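Q: What residues go here?
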């Protein structure tokens, strides 16, 4: 079946669902995105993208104007006419690290009776190993196929990642269903990995676990650099030039976070334990990441000459999101550091490019109690120490002399190694990076 002839329903218009729906429509499919949130559906119909994602709004509007993309409240009747239905619902994590499949089961229960014969249901969101079987059993349809098609999108570059993928992974026991899903990606120049559903599900977890491991590794090397007097920038240059290693995900920082790495790393450990294997390497990766938050806190303490309490200390925090290019605050390393600083008595005045306008409900809840500022200089005004927590490009162009002139203290802790330490010092400020001599 050609892409142009396919009817696609996307259940859930979160980060994954919206990007998937927009991009598939851009590639030629006729897509209906379904959601239970009436307010969000209204915004999307009006061309408003409720997340920060470069270029997504423009491509979405183009697909709407072309008549290939629409948004509706609820799943019926969009699912009744769909050839392919993508499940893009949340899979929150339980306390033991396992994923909560209640939203997946609920969606499968609802759509099972109304799917047309021969339809294909696709697990798109990250789901635990074995979810293929759970969805199939819940659908309870012998004439419907289930396919695992994990996403590999990076927040901030999701549009580019979808349209320029390293690979498209399709896991299915049904060749016809696998080829139908593959046809949706026919316009992309990429390789296809056809495999069984269980392997497809594990590929997603293993990929994110490996990337988290690289970051934890380089953060550990950065800590070692500080002890022996080496420079992490030179170390990264040396090992990253090795083609067997590569330079990606070797940037030291305050730790990894976001919606994927923490959840998927813990899920790997949980899945392994459920099947009798102690994934000690991944447990170590997670432990190192927790330690990294503490190391950043200790840097701030040292910068202001405190050992225990930060009472009376004003911290200018630059960056709140877990990474640049997104408004996502989930598992933000910067916020983890800020939480500890606040608990020790520090007053936080913070700036992030995504929090200068009206805050969304998640931002209001997570940032409660923070003194949010309109700009980086405002956050630095009267501060004893300025801490860079997110790698927003605008922080690389700070007027350091102005920063120094508005601060009460004279310390900069650069948790992202964005700044030139010599330039910071020449402005009369003390400088601490991560792993820098």
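A:
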């Amino acid at each position: 079946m050609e892409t142009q002839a396919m009817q696609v329903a996307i259940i859930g218009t979160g980060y994954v669902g919206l990007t998937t729906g927009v991009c598939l429509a851009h590639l030629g499919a006729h897509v209906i995105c379904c959601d239970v949130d009436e307010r969000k559906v209204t915004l999307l119909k009006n061309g408003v993208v409720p997340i920060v994602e470069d270029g997504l709004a423009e491509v979405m509007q183009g697909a709407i104007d072309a008549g290939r993309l629409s948004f509706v409240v609820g799943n019926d009747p969009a699912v009744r006419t769909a050839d392919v239905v993508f499940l893009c619902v949340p899979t929150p994590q339980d306390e033991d690290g396992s994923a909560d499949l209640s939203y997946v089961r609920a969606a499968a229960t609802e759509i099972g009776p109304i799917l047309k014969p021969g339809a294909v249901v696709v697990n798109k969101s990250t789901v635990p190993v074995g979810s293929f079987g759970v969805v199939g059993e819940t659908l309870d349809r012998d004439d419907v196929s289930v396919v695992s098609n994990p996403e590999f999108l990076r927040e901030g570059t999701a549009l580019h990642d979808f349209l320029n993928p390293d690979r498209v992974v399709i896991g299915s026991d049904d060749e016809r269903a696998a080829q139908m899903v593959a046809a949706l990606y026919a316009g992309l120049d990429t390789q296809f990995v056809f495999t069984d559903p269980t392997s497809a599900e594990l590929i997603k977890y293993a990929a994110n676990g490996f990337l988290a491991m690289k970051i934890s590794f380089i953060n550990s090397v950065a800590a070692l650099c500080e002890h022996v007097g080496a420079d992490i920038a030179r170390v990264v240059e040396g090992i990253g030039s090795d083609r067997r290693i590569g330079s990606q995900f070797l940037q030291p920082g305050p730790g990894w976070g976001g919606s994927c790495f923490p959840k998927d790393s813990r899920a790997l450990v949980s899945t392994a334990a459920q099947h009798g294997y102690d994934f000690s390497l991944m447990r170590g990766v997670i432990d190192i990441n927790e330690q990294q938050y503490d190391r950043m806190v200790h840097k701030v303490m040292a910068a202001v000459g405190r050992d225990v309490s930060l009472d009376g200390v004003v911290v200018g925090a630059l960056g709140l999101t877990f990474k640049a290019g997104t408004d996502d605050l989930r598992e933000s390393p910067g916020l983890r550091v800020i939480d500890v600083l606040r608990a020790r008595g520090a007053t936080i005045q913070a700036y992030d490019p995504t929090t200068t306008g009206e805050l969304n409900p998640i931002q209001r809840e997570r940032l409660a109690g923070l003194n949010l500022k309109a700009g980086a200089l405002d956050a630095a005004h009267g501060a004893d120490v300025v801490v860079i927590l997110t790698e927003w490009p605008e922080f690389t162009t700070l007027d350091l002399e102005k920063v120094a002139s508005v601060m009460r203290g004279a310390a900069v802790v650069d948790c992202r190694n964005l700044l030139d330490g010599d330039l910071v010092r020449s402005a009369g400020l003390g400088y601490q990076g991560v792993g820098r001599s």
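A: Context that may help when evaluating the design: The chain has a mean pLDDT of 95. Residues 3-195 form a domain with the Rossmann fold fold (CATH 3.40.50.720).
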